[in-house]
Design brief:
Strand order of the largest sheet: 1-6-7-9-10-11-12-15
CATH class: Mainly Beta
Structural class: mainly beta
Radius of gyration: 23 Å
Number of domains: 1
Number of helices: 2
CATH topology: Porin
Length: 264
C-alpha cells in the first residue's frame, strides 16, 4: 500500500482496537445516508496510442529530413500520478447482514511525471521536442524527455456505483464488512507537461470496485465507517491535441476513505 495511506490506516486500526469494550448497537434495518472523504493511490498508466493519420515529424537535429510515420503506427509513454483526493455520497438500505447502496464518487489525481515517449518504435526522449510538431523546422532547445518530465495536468473521474455489502455482525460495536460494486464512470484526461497541452479529452466506461472495511457505532443511528477499495474505471480512449493520435489511458486506483453513516 502507498506510504501516504499508512497514517490513515493506522488511525483507523487503532480506533477499532479501542472499540471492543463498548456495546453500542449498529444502525437498524432501513434506509441510510453516508458521506466520506479519502485518498486515492492512482496506478501509473501505460498510455498506448496509435496515429489516426500519417504523421510527419518536425525537422530537428538528428531527424533531418523529417520522418513520416504511417497511420496506425504506435505512439505512447508512461504517466505517474500523485496521490489524489476522493469524495463520496451514498444512499443505502440495510436488511439484516446485507446492504445495497447507490454511490456517487469523485476522484482527482494530479500528474506527477511522464516518461518513456516512443513513436513508431523509436525512443524520442533524447530528441529535441520540435520533433513532435509536424512542420516545425529547427530545435526548440528542450528534449522530449525534459519537456514531459515536468508533468502537469490531472486525471479526474466521476462515477456512479451500485454496491452490495455483507456485514460480519458480532456482539461488539465494531462491524467488519466486505463489498462489491459495478457502475459507470466518466474520466477527464488533461495532460499538459511544461504547459504544452497534449491531451484534453474525456471518455465514459463501465467500472467496478471491491471493498473491505469496518464500521463503529457512535449512537443507535450514527456510525463511523472506514473502507479500503480497489477501483477499476476501465481505459479511457481519448484523442491527442498536439498530433493526430488516440490513446488508451489506464485508470485504476487503491483508495482509503473514512466517513459517517446515518440511519433514518
Amino acid at each position: 500500500m502507498n506510504k501516504h495511506l499508512n497514517p490513515l490506516r493506522n488511525i483507523f486500526i487503532a480506533s477499532l482496537a479501542l472499540s471492543t469494550p463498548f456495546a453500542t448497537m449498529a444502525i437498524e434495518d432501513g434506509f441510510y445516508a453516508a458521506v466520506s472523504i479519502g485518498t486515492a493511490d492512482t496506478s501509473s498508466s501505460d498510455n498506448a496510442g496509435r496515429f489516426t493519420t500519417d504523421f510527419t515529424t518536425g525537422t530537428v537535429t538528428g531527424v533531418n529530413p523529417p520522418l513520416t510515420l504511417p497511420e496506425g503506427a504506435d505512439v505512447g509513454w508512461n504517466t505517474e500520478f500523485d496521490n489524489g483526493d476522493t469524495y463520496s455520497i451514498v444512499l443505502g438500505n440495510k436488511n439484516g447482514s446485507g446492504r445495497w447502496e447507490l454511490e456517487y464518487t469523485e476522484i482527482d489525481s494530479d500528474v506527477e511525471t511522464h516518461t518513456g515517449v516512443e513513436a513508431g518504435g523509436l525512443a524520442l526522449g533524447a530528441i529535441d521536442a520540435g520533433v513532435l510538431i509536424s512542420g516545425n523546422v529547427g530545435d526548440l532547445g528542450v528534449s522530449v524527455a525534459d519537456l514531459v518530465a515536468a508533468g502537469q495536468g490531472s486525471l479526474e473521474t466521476s462515477s456512479i456505483f451500485v454496491n452490495y455489502f455483507y456485514d460480519l455482525a458480532n456482539s461488539s460495536s465494531f462491524t467488519p464488512f466486505l463489498g462489491v460494486g459495478v457502475g459507470y464512470a466518466s474520466t477527464d484526461v488533461n495532460y499538459r507537461p511544461s504547459g504544452v497541452e497534449i491531451i484534453n479529452d474525456s471518455d465514459d466506461n463501465f467500472a467496478y470496485q471491491v471493498m473491505a472495511g469496518a464500521s463503529f457505532s457512535l449512537t443507535d443511528n450514527l456510525d463511523i465507517v472506514g473502507t479500503l477499495r480497489y477501483r477499476d474505471f476501465g481505459d479511457a480512449e481519448v484523442e491527442a491535441s498536439l498530433f493526430p493520435a488516440t490513446f488508451d489511458v489506464e485508470n485504476q486506483s487503491t483508495q482509503f476513505d473514512i466517513g459517517l453513516r446515518y440511519g433514518f
